[in-house]
Amino acid sequence: MEIDHVFIRTQRTAPEAELLKSFGLTEASPNTHLGQGTANRRFFFKNCFLELLFLENAEDAQSQTTKPTQLFERLSHHDSDVSPFGLCFRAKSTMQTAAPFLSWQYHPAYLPLHLHVDIAKHLSLIEPMWFYLSFATRPDQASPEKQQPFQHRNNLSEITKIKLHIPKLAKSLTVNEVQYLENLELIDSENHLLEIVFDHQKQNKMHDFRPDLPLIFHY
Predict the structure, then answer these.
(1) Count of other CB atoms within 10 angstroms of residue 116
(2) Which tens digits make up the pLDDT trace of 120-139?
(3) What is the CATH number of domain 2-218?
(4) What is the CA radius of gyration of the chain?
(5) What are φ and ψ of residue 103, in 5° steps?
(6) Which of 11, 64, 77, 112 qualifies as a FRET site for 55, CA 20 to 30 Å off?
(7) What is the average per-residue pLDDT within 188-206?
(8) Alpha carbon of 48 to those of 65, 76, 149: distances in Å?
(9) By percentage, how much of the chain surpasses pLDDT 90?
(10) pTM
(11) Using 50, 70 and 90 to split pLDDT, how confident is the model at 95?
(12) At CB < 8 A and 24+ separation, what contacts does 10-13 make?
C-alpha cells in the first residue's frame, strides 16, 4: 500500500488554491463529484496529488448514499474537533486487491458500478478520513487521456514524505494499520497540520501556508 493523495478541506470554490499557484504550483483540472455534493481543485506530482476539497451541494452530501462518509460534517465544520484532512491509499502491487484496514464499501454515483471506495470503519471526525482506492495508479503512469500536469516552477517532483499532526492520535483504530507505512509519519499534536516533504527536501527550503491553510512544504 502507498499514498495516492491527500485532501485538505477548504472554503467553497477553494480560493486557497491561489496561494499554491502563487508559490509556483501548476494547477490541474478540477473535479465535481456528482451526487456526492463535493468538488475540488487539484495539484499533481509524479507519484501522488494534493486535493483541495470543498462542499458544493449540501443536500447531495447528506443523501442516503453519501451521509455515512461523514463528508458533510467534515467539510462544513471548521473547528478543531474536526480534521480538515483525508488520506487516500492505493495498492503498491497487483497482488493487493483489498483495503489493508477494516473498511466498508462506498459506491458513489460518479464511479462506474464495478468500482467503489473503501472507507475506514469507526472513524471519528477528529482524525483524518482514511480511504483506499484499489483501482488508483501513480499520476505519471496515467493513460495519455488522463494525464495531468505535474511540472512546477519550484521544481517539485515527488512527494517523499507526509507528516500528519493529529490530536488524540492514540484513539484512532486505523492508525495501527497505517502508521508503519513507508513515507508516512503520524504525530500526536494539539493542532491539525499537514507537512509535505518533496524530493527528500534536497533544496533545503520550507514554505508555511498558515494561517490560510494548515500546510507546510519542505522541498
Answers:
(1) 18
(2) 998 889 999 999 999 999 99
(3) 3.10.180
(4) 16
(5) -150, 170
(6) 112
(7) 96
(8) 27, 26, 12
(9) 80
(10) 0.94
(11) low
(12) 10/41, 10/52, 10/53, 10/54, 10/213, 11/54, 12/54, 12/55, 12/56, 13/54
Residue 111 in grid coordinates: 464511479
The three cell numbers locating residue 2:
502507498
Cβ atoms of residues 216 and 193 within 8 Å: yes
All cell numbers assigned to 20: 499554491
